[in-house]
Design a protein that fits this description.
The protein has helices at 15-27, 38-45, 65-72, 85-99, 110-119, 121-126, 140-152, 170-178, 222-226, 244-261, 266-280, 317-333, 345-349, 351-360; strands at residues 7-10, 31-35, 56-60, 77-80, 102-105, 130-132, 157-164, 185-188, 191-194, 200-203, 212-215, 234-241, 294-302, 307-315, 341-342, 364-368. With 370 residues, it is α/β, with parallel strands linked by helices. The chain has a 7-stranded parallel beta sheet with strand order 3-2-1-4-5-6-15, sandwiched between helices. A 5-stranded mixed beta sheet has the order 12-7-13-14-16. A two-stranded antiparallel sheet has the order 8-9. The structure holds NADP nicotinamide-adenine-dinucleotide phosphate.
Length: 370
């Protein structure tokens, strides 16, 4: 019988899943492409460039902890690309723990990061396993850039902005709407403070003459990642699309939610949010175009007597996500991770390493602004 492949890619039929498969092939990492529909996974992966030379098999799996743990057993790493993670994440992370696998995912939902840190961080640590959600465009490059700022200057406060050009997928749109119900927080003197709900922020972005409209969008993962970081006391993260019309639409939805949907029971809130997301995006967008779908992460660090700013100029946020997942799986299958338990991607895999891998594949480049 063939040995178990070291990596299970869960959600392989998705837009991000197929890109992770593409980069797993580039790193030469054997993987199991798993999900709820084997025929769809086979169909989607058959169109991934070069996939005929990848070492992979396709498996259909149910969504219970036991079914997932049974599939994960014997593997080393689970890459989870099935979201919204606040809905579908708990069974997958529990199954990874049960099967003794490291866990990485592509979530950007702060509420999910807090849940993982509080409920699973120590359990993974006690088994010598890593649990690193958010190993994705939003917010791993900005996490890496923030750590460059922290080593460059004497800063204790971070403001972080991540924005992208492009068309959110079905799963991303569902998630953008699902997080509206959650409480997004920033960090003030290492304590969580809730953002004012349904409020937009004008932001200045290097490389653009006009200001952009950003949202706190559920809070982003950084406040959770930096909560127990002794150098850092204050973190505010914002973000969104480099498209004012879409951002105005999201802000209007947030206001509508506060006025008419929040008073409803939780299940009804979730149903209405999913319905609104369905009205915006039901399909899968085309493959990204690196000349149009640009990304930017800006980090400003401030201390009492010091200041530093840098930006990561990039392209194709979903490709960055696929690459980061594949690199994480590659590093974990070699046993090269720097942490166990709950950790940010840059803490787990190295901030310079993540920036280098993104740059070496032509997807982004760090620039110091000051
Ligand atoms: N942080 C970031 O930078 C970042 C980047 C990209 C994506 N994301 C997040 O990652 C998630 C996926 O995004 P995507 O763009 O890949 O979306 P997508 O193209 O819609 O793919 C979603 C995947 O999840 C699977 N799935 C959905 N519901 C499921 C369920 N109940 N049980 C089992 N599998 C299920 C889908 O399976 P079927 O094909 O069978 O429907 C598909 O494989 C979203 O939450 C998105 O916000 C985050």
């Amino acid at each position: 019988m063939a040995a178990k492949k070291p990596v299970v890619l869960y959600g392989a039929s998705g837009f991000s899943g197929r890109l992770a498969a593409e980069y797993l092939r580039e790193f030469g990492v054997p993987f199991i492409a798993a999900g709820r529909n084997k025929t769809k996974i086979q169909d989607v992966l058959s169109r991934v460039p070069g996939i005929e030379t990848a070492d992979y098999e396709t498996v259909q799996v149910g969504s219970s902890v036991d079914e997932l743990a049974n599939l994960f057993s014997g593997a080393k790493v689970v890459c989870n690309t099935v979201g919204p993670f606040i809905y579908y994440g708990p069974a997958v992370v529990e199954a990874a723990l049960k099967a003794g696998c490291h866990y990485v995912d592509i979530s950007g939902e702060q509420a999910w990061h807090r849940q993982i840190a509080e409920c699973w961080g120590e359990k993974f640590a006690s088994k010598g396993l890593l649990v690193a959600p958010g190993t994705a465009f939003m917010s791993a490059p900005s996490d890496a850039a923030a750590r460059v700022c922290m080593e460059t200057a004497n800063v204790d406060s971070l403001e972080i902005l991540s924005m992208f050009d492009g068309m959110p997928t079905f799963g991303s749109t569902q998630t953008i709407f699902a997080v509206i119900q959650t409480e997004g927080c920033y960090l003030e003197q290492n304590r969580y403070k809730p953002w004012v709900r349904a409020k937009g922020y004008e932001v200045v972005v290097p490389g653009y003459m006009r200001t952009q409209l950003a949202l706190s969008w559920g809070g982003f993962p950084h406040p959770v990642w930096y909560k127990n970081e002794p150098q850092i006391a204050n973190v505010r993260s914002f973000g969104g699309l480099l498209n004012r019309e879409i951002m105005e639409g999201v802000l209007a939805t947030e206001k509508h939610f506060e006025e008419t949907i929040r008073p409803l029971p939780k299940a009804e809130q979730e149903r209405k949010l999913a319905e609104m997301a369905n009205a915006v995006q039901t399909g899968t967008p085309p493959r990204e175009n690196s000349r149009t779908q640009r990304t930017i992460d800006v980090v400003v660090g401030r201390g009492s007597t010091d200041y530093v700013q840098c930006a990561v100029f990039g392209t194709c946020c979903y490709r960055q996500t696929g690459l980061l997942q594949a690199y994480a799986a590659h590093a974990l299958s070699l046993g090269a991770q720097k942490k166990v338990g709950f950790a940010s991607p840059a803490a787990a895999f190295g901030h310079r390493e993540l920036l280098k891998v993104l740059e070496s594949f032509g997807l982004s480049k760090l620039k110091m602004i000051s």
